[in-house]
Amino acid sequence: MAIKNSLTFLAGLALFMLMSDAGAWTLVYANDATGKLTYGNLIALREAAKQGANIKVSLNDSSVMPCQELAIGTDYVTCMYTTGISTDYVFPGTTFGFADDAYYGYYMLNTKGQVAVSRWSVGEHVDKGKTLFTRAIKWFVE
Asked: Which first-to-last residue range defines the signal peptide (predicted)?
């Protein structure tokens, strides 16, 4: 019990320190593609989410998205992002703009490295498929 209280206190202290510098984004947690912790503390991320902190996730340092909804479990945090739209922009120097056959992308990412994507046609509400894969994910708190 004393260890749990100590961990909760440390997580709370870390959260206070993170939130005291409003406007700054701080890496709080990172996992590899297998869900293994590579940086930070899940308790601190969970406490930040419970306190209503703004949280963003980064996939392999190639995209960053704000979490619009969070699910908080005892051993995970899940981020939902529902305003993605397909683009033709992939890498610098290639095409830039929206895809000709644009679709909305709905994303769920969790601290176990799982990413679920559901794609739907713009204007037609046609299911364009779903995928589930794993990625390294970084979790940032404002």
From this structure: 1-24
The full length of the chain comes to: 142
Beta strands (DSSP E) in 26-126 are: 26-31, 37-40, 55-59, 63-66, 69-72, 77-85, 103-110, 114-121
**Tokens linked to 4:** 């749990």
List the domain boundaries for the chain.
Answer: 2-141
Burial label, 14 (beta-carbon count in 10 A; 0-12, 13-18, 19+): buried
* pTM for the structure as a whole: 0.75
Q: Which residues of the chain have pLDDT under 50?
A: 9, 13, 18
The pLDDT value given to residue 8: 55
* pLDDT one-digit tens code per residue, 40-63: 999 999 999 999 999 999 987 778
